[in-house]
Structure formats: C-alpha cells, structure tokens
Amino acid sequence: MAQSGPDLSFDPDLDHLPPEIRWREWMGRVEAVIFASPEPVPREVLSRLVGRACRLDDVIADIQHELQARPFELVFVAGGWHHRTRPRYAEAIRLVQQPQAGSGDRDLSSAERLVVTAIAYLQPVTRKELSRLFGKEVSRDVIARLKRLDFIGAGPRAPEPGAPLTYVTTSKFLSVFGFASLRDLPDIEALEEAGLLQPTAETNEPVDALDRELGPVGDDRD
C-alpha cells in the first residue's frame, strides 16, 4: 500500500484567526503533542505545529506559566520537551503506584546506577577502564542489563590491542536522570582535581563521589 503524503490541510500559520485565538491554538497544539508523546519531543518537531511568525520559545514559556499551579510541568530533557510530574509529588505517586519494569531509574541497583553514571562521564569507555575506576571488576552482567534497559549502547571500538568495545549513554539516560544533554552533568573537572576519579585498591572514593554528585536514585538492592 502506498504511503500517504503530508496532510496538506494542516495549517500552521492560522492567518484567518484573530491574534489572541491563534496564539491559544498554537499553545494547545504544542502542549497536546508533548502530552501525548511518551518521549521528549524535539524542537524541530514542535516548530512544524506553529506559524512562521511564531516564537516557539514564547509559546513554551506561556505554557509553563499556566502550569505553575499544576502538579506537572514542561521540562527540557534529552534534547526535547516532556511533561513531568513535579518532584515534590514523587512520594505521593510512589505510595499508590506499583513500580513497572523498565520504567526508569528505580529499576537500577546502586551498583548499576554508579556504573551508568561513570559511563556518562567517561564515554566512550571500555569495561576494563570501568573496572580500573572502581577498583573491582564491572561484570558483563551489569553491562548487559544496562544495555537491555536502554541506558547504554555500544560506542566505537577502543584504539588499543584487541579493539575492545566501548560504551556510551543513550537518550533514555538523559531523560530518566533529567538532563537536557551531557553538558548538564556535574563538573567532572572538579572531581578530577579533587582526586576523586583516581581510585586506589584501598579506597572506594570514586563510588562515593559519583553517588554524592547525583544523589540517591531508586532503591539500593546490592
């Protein structure tokens, strides 16, 4: 069956509407698309919903203003806009909601959370390099589970003997941990200057440092 072409009836400009009604319609379109999407919606997608004379940033700002008294908000994570419940209601939601497999950071154990955080800082990074960082072996099972949950993926082969695999974080990592991009990670240079990313066999400093930087996330099950 041939695929249908673009919907030519869709009018992003809405020139026939009075300015105030046109603006409200643009706001409604943008919020509806973000609300309906399970993933963050990129700016270039939202730009197709509004007219050429419309400033998308102003539309987003007006939506955020109207949501100030609501228990949810629009946030920019993983390269797009997403509806999120406000953090102060997290405990109330957990009280009545059964955890769902694959739903987010609560699926990660303490060790898995620290490994994926280290990968975010050091990517692309090999399993051997991660093991050296933590002063103990990072198992293949941990890497496999993080890949299965789509927190990490395969990076380029490392330029060293044997060309081992490297690992990088995914957009799901950014979305779940609430980062717009990797630039939002806590400053790794400050950790390096403090010597917290140079582990020794006698200390667990890198684990403690990464844990402090991101704070507790999910249940510790190790």
UniProtKB/TrEMBL annotation:
Region of interest (Disordered), ranges: 196-222
Biased composition, class Basic and acidic residues, residue ranges: 209-222
Keywords, ordered alphabetically: Cell cycle, Cell division, Chromosome partition, Cytoplasm
Protein name in the entry: SMC-Scp complex subunit ScpB
Species, as recorded: Microvirga arsenatis
